[in-house]
Specification:
It is found in: Cell envelope. InterPro entries: Peripla_BP_I (IPR028082), SBP_2_dom (IPR025997), TAT_signal (IPR006311). Belongs to the bacterial solute-binding protein 2 family. With 310 residues, this protein is of the alpha/beta class. 45% of the residues lie in helices and 19% in strands. The strands form two sheets. The protein has a six-stranded parallel beta sheet, sandwiched between helices. Strands 7-6-8-9-10-12 form a six-stranded mixed beta sheet, sandwiched between helices. Strand 8, helix 8 and strand 9 form a beta-alpha-beta unit. The longest helix is centred in the middle third of the chain and has 19 residues. Bound molecules: alpha-L-arabinofuranose. The site of alpha-L-arabinofuranose (AHR) has 13 residues, from helix 2 and strand 9.
């Protein structure tokens, strides 16, 4: 029996589908929903067995999920880290178990970069810069004199996109000393929180608000509701710049309620599956893979909307 079972088992192991454990941030935004769908669809297409865990925007849930993937001896672990710091211990556990880790979408801040194999996702600092460049140009044309007051809706506190989008934006707007961020608070990347924080910004009434910079489209869409409920007109009374390029943002632009969205591509699934296969096959991967993205203004929104894939 041992003689016949031996070869049969080894043939099966070689043919067995690759098992990928994926820990997702949550379901906080339209972007995230598209990202999850892309990962699930791509796993099916690639014949990869996906073990998917939703962390509901909590780091402790992601740590638990990663530990469970290690215990289940998955072939590869991938995750989109909710915040940047605090990953060294669990990633070392994965490394000790010889399970390669791929970061998708968001970066981590670790002392030892060998704790992950590769990181695929957007350049969030550059997205912030793109938003800043649009604002510089807009301020020159629209507010030729005097102060330009911006309110900022930040993403989840401690997350890579919140840190980097703020950094890139500030780096650019400092070229015009009239432009100031007069209020800045986290809206946790959700519509509900974006609306709530914008309501508070509007209630303060101590400074005229010229422009809203939202770190994602969902918070901008929530804020649009707050602006309208306060009897003001988005775009006309308060210009709005946000990031992601989801369908909801294009619809808002077509309706004349949003000025511009900076694209952040969530369709990472197919590339992630290829990377998982490559790493399992022992290929050397680049440490950083950056996605290509554009900027869409309201004047092109109607023409672009039917082409949007998310
Ligand atoms: O990490 C990407 C960001 O996370 C997206 O901009 C945002 O919508 C999402 O929640």
């Amino acid at each position: 029996l041992a003689l016949t079972l031996g070869p049969v088992l080894s043939v099966h192991a070689a043919d067995a589908p690759l098992v990928l454990g994926f820990s997702q941030v949550g379901a906080e935004s339209e972007w995230r929903t598209a990202n999850t769908a892309s990962i699930k669809d791509a796993a099916k297409q690639a014949g990869i067995t996906l073990k998917f865990a939703d962390a509901q925007q909590k780091q402790e849930n992601q740590v638990k999920a990663i530990r469970s993937f290690i215990a289940q001896k998955v072939d590869v672990i991938a995750f989109s880290p909710v915040v940047e710091s605090g990953w060294d211990t669990v990633l070392r556990e994965a490394k000790n178990a010889k399970i390669p880790v791929i970061l998708t979408d968001r970066a981590v801040n670790v002392t030892d970069p060998s704790l992950y194999v590769t990181f695929i996702g957007s350049d969030f600092v550059e997205e912030g810069r793109k938003a800043g460049r649009w604002v510089l140009d807009w301020a020159k044309k629209t507010v030729p004199q005097g102060e330009v007051n911006i309110v900022e809706l930040q993403g989840t506190v401690g997350s890579a996109p919140a840190i980097d989008r703020k950094k890139g934006f500030e780096e650019i707007i400092k070229a015009d000393p009239r432009i100031k961020i007069v209020r800045s608070q986290s809206g946790d990347f959700t519509r509900a929180k974006g609306k709530e924080v914008m309501e508070a910004f509007l209630k303060a009434k101590d400074k005229k608000i010229h422009l809203l910079y939202a770190h994602n489209d969902d918070m901008a869409i929530g804020a649009i509701q707050a602006i309208e409920e306060a009897g003001l007109k988005p775009v006309k009374d308060i210009a709005i710049v946000s990031i992601d390029g989801v369908r909801g943002a294009f619809e808002a632009m077509v309706a004349g309620k949003l000025n511009v969205t900076i694209e952040c591509n969530p369709l990472l699934g197919p590339q992630l599956m290829q990377l998982a296969k490559d790493v399992k096959a022992g290929k050397t991967l680049p440490k950083r893979i950056t996605t290509e993205e554009g900027v869409f203004t309201a004047d092109v929104a109607a023409q672009e909307l039917p082409k949007r894939k998310y």
